[in-house]
Amino acid sequence: MKTLENANFDRFLHTRRRVYNTIFLILTGLATAIALAALALILETLVVKGVAGLDTAVFTMSQPAPDMAGGLLNAIVGSLVMCAIGMVIALFVGVLAGTWLAEYGDGTKLATVVRFLNDILISAPSILIGLFVYQLLVRPFHGFSALAGGVALALLAMPVATRATEDIMRLQPYALREAGMALGANRGHVIRSIIWRASKSGLMTGALLSFARISGETAPLLFTSLGNPFLSFKLTQPMASMPTTIFQFAMSAYDDWQRLAWAGALIIAVAVLTTNIIGRALTRGSIHK
Questions:
Q1: Which secondary structure element, helix H or strand E, spans residue 7, and what is its range?
Q2: What are phi and psi of 189, to 5 degrees?
């Protein structure tokens, strides 16, 4: 009798678990479908309206006056210039900081503090970075500049590069370090010639992810580079950028400016998507190796 009751009870528990599992699968599937549907609607709107605004003038002409022909050349060039400044600074500091954390600072209190601050910077709102750089480089010099915009972008990309560098270098086997030092090379030479070379795919991935992080930022550039309706290469003067120009055009009442805003949004989305795809492809390749 007890054996029969135990069997019935086990059958009841098994049935209940299956019901709960089915309900959970349905809920997670429904949530996934909702998220994918929202993403599909966003992409559809972006592609339809963005493609409609694309033409050769977008890449060959600068910002137009309302109801005039023009494009986004000044904004595209400005974004490339400021992103280049930001990436040079971010990679120089980020790679060195990540190397120190992985190779020299392991187990020290300073490394714990650096990691904690780096995590805060990763999650810090970009508008706070913009305000900080405004107080540091804009207000004291009484003017907006492309250099200030590049520094703001560097502060956003730097923690990403630092984290990626530390993680990829920790994945390298310690036998590589032992083999290099066994040949008589000092630790610094081993890191530069062996560990960095073995980590090049991961370092490149970190650089691409850092670029994707800053390529669409608007808030910090509103406080630093501001914008410029003309094509400019002067780093000490205001400079246009794609995010700020899109923000300005999207908020306007002119149809031609709104059309250019959609085209610019599509260009940024394609650039970020391509960068992420390349980064993931490099990551997969480094893992398989």
A1: helix 2-53
A2: -65, -40
Give the chain's end-to-end CA distance (angstroms, integer).
60
Q: State how far the Cα of 83 lies from the Cα of 240, in Å rounded to an integer.
A: 12
Q: How far is CA 114 from CA 89, 99, 102, 110, 119, in A?
A: 18, 12, 12, 6, 9
Among 146, 119, 270, 120, CA closest to 220: 146
Q: What is the pLDDT of residues 134-184, one digit of tens each?
A: 999 999 999 999 999 999 999 999 999 999 999 999 999 989 888 888 888
Helix (H, G, I), strand (E, B) or coil at 261: helix
Please say whether the beta carbons of 128 and 217 come within 8 A. Answer: no
**Residues 219, 155 contacting (CB under 8 angstroms):** no
Mean pLDDT of 97-121: 92
The two tokens of residue 246 are 């899109």
Q: Computed from CA positions of residues 252, 253, 258, 259, in that sequence, does the dihedral angle turn out positive or negative?
A: negative
3-state secondary structure 184-252: CCCHHHHHHHHHHHHCHHHHHHHHHHHHHHHCCCCHHHHCCCCCCCCCCCCCCCCCCCHHHHHHHHHCC
CA angle 28, 30, 32 (to 5 degrees): 70
Exposed / middle / buried, residue 68 (Cβ in 10 Å: 0-12, 13-18, 19+): exposed
Block residue for tokens 């998507």: 273
Provide the whole-model pTM.
Answer: 0.86
Amino acid at 216: G
45-102 pLDDT, tens digit per residue, is 999 999 999 999 999 999 998 888 899 999 999 999 999 999 999 999 999 999 999 9
Tokens of 31: 């949530």
